[in-house]
């Protein structure tokens, strides 16, 4: 049995892919017999310790949000609080999620200083040229320099992380997000023996590649008459 700490600025009640990933991964680890504790910042009046399904313990830390649901990336100001929780819960592995989460990077840094194993999961792609990308990429270069291992959710994601963070590709593994095909099977009205249905479930925003999806739909449907698309999601790119 291992004692894990999942750390990210993004967790329930906030909704998104990272939040769902952390929750489901934690539940699977608990079912395997491991202990999991989650650390995130407070959301409104949700401050302190809460318990979720199967005794999953969540620390909603009293740290103010700086920008876009992330805390201020000081890297040092929260050392006493995070160190106390890591010692109290006897954590062995610190698992940070999302390149945008300052809290995750700070917890991994503290974990390294305490001699704990650290793992980082990068959930999405990011650019190289604009000011935001330059700052974020330099930030994760520092953070991942001493990280024991990195996980990416796709092969192109691994290539993106290796280039941005300048980490050795041997320290990066690809573990694709699981898809429950029973939950995402088109109904009878969308399916026939001669038809191929491509199901897309996504937040409809630019950084998710919706513009590229729209282009390939036009090309594929013109070339293959038996192919159709079923899209689930919402966002500014819904049109």
Automatic annotation (TrEMBL):
It comes from the Eukaryota. The keyword Transferase applies. It is an enzyme of class 2 (transferase). GO terms for biological process: GPI anchor biosynthetic process. This is phosphatidylinositol N-acetylglucosaminyltransferase. It comes from Exocentrus adspersus. Pathway: Glycolipid biosynthesis; glycosylphosphatidylinositol-anchor biosynthesis. The lineage of its organism: Eukaryota, Metazoa, Ecdysozoa, Arthropoda, Hexapoda. One of its GO terms (molecular function) is phosphatidylinositol N-acetylglucosaminyltransferase activity. GO terms for cellular component: glycosylphosphatidylinositol-N-acetylglucosaminyltransferase (GPI-GnT) complex. InterPro entries: PIGA_GPI_anchor_biosynthesis. Its EC number is 2.4.1.198.
């Amino acid at each position: 049995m291992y004692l894990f700490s999942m750390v990210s600025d993004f967790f329930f009640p906030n909704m998104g892919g990272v939040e769902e990933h952390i929750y489901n991964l934690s539940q699977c680890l608990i079912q395997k017999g491991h202990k999991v504790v989650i650390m995130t910042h407070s959301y409104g009046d949700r401050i302190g310790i809460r318990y979720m399904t199967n005794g999953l313990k969540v620390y909603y830390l009293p740290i103010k949000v700086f920008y876009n649901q992330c805390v201020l990336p000081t890297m040092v100001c929260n050392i006493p609080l995070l160190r106390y929780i890591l010692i109290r819960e006897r954590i062995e592995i610190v698992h940070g999620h999302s390149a945008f989460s300052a809290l995750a990077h700070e917890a991994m840094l503290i974990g390294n200083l305490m001699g704990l194993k650290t793992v980082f999961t990068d959930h999405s792609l990011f650019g190289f040229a604009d000011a935001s990308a330059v700052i974020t990429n330099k930030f994760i270069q520092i953070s991942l320099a001493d990280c024991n291992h990195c996980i990416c959710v796709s092969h192109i994601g691994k290539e993106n992380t290796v280039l941005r963070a300048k980490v050795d590709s041997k320290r990066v593994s690809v573990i694709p997000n699981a898809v429950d095909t029973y939950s995402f099977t088109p109904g009878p009205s969308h399916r026939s023996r001669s038809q191929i249905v491509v199901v897309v479930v996504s937040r409809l925003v630019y950084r998710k590649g919706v513009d590229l999806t729209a282009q390939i739909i036009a090309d594929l449907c013109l070339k293959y008459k038996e192919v159709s698309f079923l899209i689930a999601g919402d966002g500014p790119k819904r049109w």
